[in-house]
Fold these 4 entries.
Entry 1:
Amino acid sequence: MRKLLWLVLAAALFTFGMAQMPLEVWKYDPETGQYISLPATNNLARAFSSDPASGSCNRRQWTVEFTTEVQVAQWLEWSLNATKWTWFVRKPGDYYANSVIGTIASNGDVVVSFAGFDDLQYTGSSSVNPFIETYYAVTSGALPGTNDWIRASNLNQMTATIRDSAALHAGKSFYLWNRIKVVECNSASTYRDTGYVYLTLQNQKPWIDEQGEFVPNLEEYVQ
């Protein structure tokens, strides 16, 4: 019986020592100059206390260790002023259009990859040449040069890593250009292609789910 009591007491002490206590969090509001209490289910920042300690004896000096740990998730902000080019072409020629302007900001490496890009394809029933040769270029602002153009289908085999930097934290701008080669044997009608760009965060925390929210068992990640 005594042994059982000791086991129960030890288990209780172990549980007490490992307890994670959710804490109320306040966030500074620059518009009001005040700190505002956040709800326990807020999606900005949450905090826990853990590792309780105590002592009792006649020791002259005690050493109590305190640790503050902040785990910061990777975030991403991006914007595009357009996601579609629509051309109206009267005569064959090699043309490129002014750019789509984008911005991207993050606090970690971001990998950019592509899928579904190809030459524009005839949407009607038949065409002498059912494809329009299509290219894309990305610049930091200048007009694209001859070597900047990438054939649309080649994008699908490419990846680019935007490295973590102070400039990326502040936000970087880019310019996406579109080029087409319409030839005499492109029959009259509409040609179209839809591609996809994937932005993949490279340093995300395991306590962020696939939708970018806190996991429901966040307390289990307190170490």
Entry 2:
Amino acid sequence: MSNRLVSKVVRIPVFLVTLVCCTPTNTAPPEVAPSSPAVLPSTQAKPSAPEKVPASTPIKPSGPEGLHANAPTKPSNSPEGSRNMTTVNLIVGDSLSYSLKKIEVTAGSTVKLTLTHQGRMPKTAMGHNWVLLSNGTNANRFLNTAMRAAKTDYIPESLKDSVIAHTKVIGGGESDIIEFKAPAAGEYTFVCSFPGHGIVMTGKLIAK
């Protein structure tokens, strides 16, 4: 019987013996070389060089002020500047008087005169005007004639050549503005030609 067992063992196929003998036991897994991290292309844009901005030209303001902002101011009496003008502000009220008894101007210049009535009475009761008489005019004769010229602001038509300049008659709260050329050098009389006023409402314009 033992011979039979031996015979059976001997007869085990050879490929099984080979498989048993050649199969490795406790074989360690093959070593894998560490791979280097993949280098990804950078998506961050490189900073570009700053653009050169041209120097800005200062902007000049529009309008006349901007056009002449650097231009020198010309005096009013310059031949190329504005005309030479004398400004006179004359005040009257509910009394028989002018605020100025003497007015000085430059001969041949332009005079801008403003007559203002600061009273309350109407012009029919306390009206005033300003009348500049030419040299050689008799003031009393002119005033006596003017009393009858209410329709023309007490400036008689027959004596208009004796008047250099005049305002209209104004009452309380009113004013009048006139412009005229100053006469030649000399001294001239001005009056209020409203009836009864010119005796005390009078003064001198002196042109130099």
Entry 3:
Amino acid sequence: MKIWKTIATFLGVTLVLATVIYFYYIEYYQPRNKDRLIFKTINEEVGAVMEYARTPEEWARGLSGRENLGTGKGMLFIFPQEQNLAFFMKDVNFPLDIIFINKDSRIVDLITMQPCKTEPCPIYTSRAPAQYVAEVNANFAQRNGFGITDQVILPEGTSQ
């Protein structure tokens, strides 16, 4: 009988410990929707963890000077209103997909941009007004099967 008490105690402690570890992981290591931009495709939803650029200084700096972006990561530029937007790749060391998103959370343009080593750098302009711009690693859109007119779910607190 004593062996069953020991086994039951061990299983109970193990279950409690596993639960604590699980919730710790969810709280501190899982990206939350507040930081994720979700691209909705026909078959699935694909997310990328975003850094934010909300001010003119952050817009100008963007991803310049970095060696890489990291898998499944990106930068979301948030503008106060819809407008035709233009970007360039000065001092960005790796190719990017630039995804222009309108106020209704629809992709209105998508361009793969190459690093610019010498000036003048090409300027990448949206075909339609956009309020948000996501920069992710090049070919992210193609690999994940989303494109122009597809819906996105903006991270919590970013919609105007």
Entry 4:
Amino acid sequence: MHKFPALILGLCAVSASAHAEIVGQVSTKFKWMGPNDKIVVEVFQDPDIPGIACYLSRAKTGGISGAVGVAEDTSDASLACRQIGPVSLPEDIASGKADGSDVFKKRTSLFTKTMQVARFYDAPRNTLVYLTYSDRIIEGSPKNSVSVVVLMPWQAKSGKNPSDDPAASR
């Protein structure tokens, strides 16, 4: 009896953590009833590292079951992450303590399946590694995609590096 509110809170937490903007979508399969099956392209920013954006393409099941939210999306996904501004790593990420942390999570079935993006830091190569995968309460999927972002110094729009300007350091 007390498990139902916990389940609802858990579902709300999963959907609340999935903050992404839809960039575009294409239909892949015509459905007579309800929306078509699609590939959706979404973008999200790493919540802990400003200056990093990730683009995720994933399958979205249409039809009547997809329209009412009970369809299960496939585990197919692709991921591309890029540095879009200056990056400063928090200590827990730079030290590796936050390796494997979820930076994105989206429900892909009514109750049991989620698509996630986890982040790792490869310190010797100064590189962030992002991994997308899908899991279920009982069993996940081996389908995955990885993207790396080699961290580079970021230059201001003027073409000058702000660290080269003595006035900027005052």
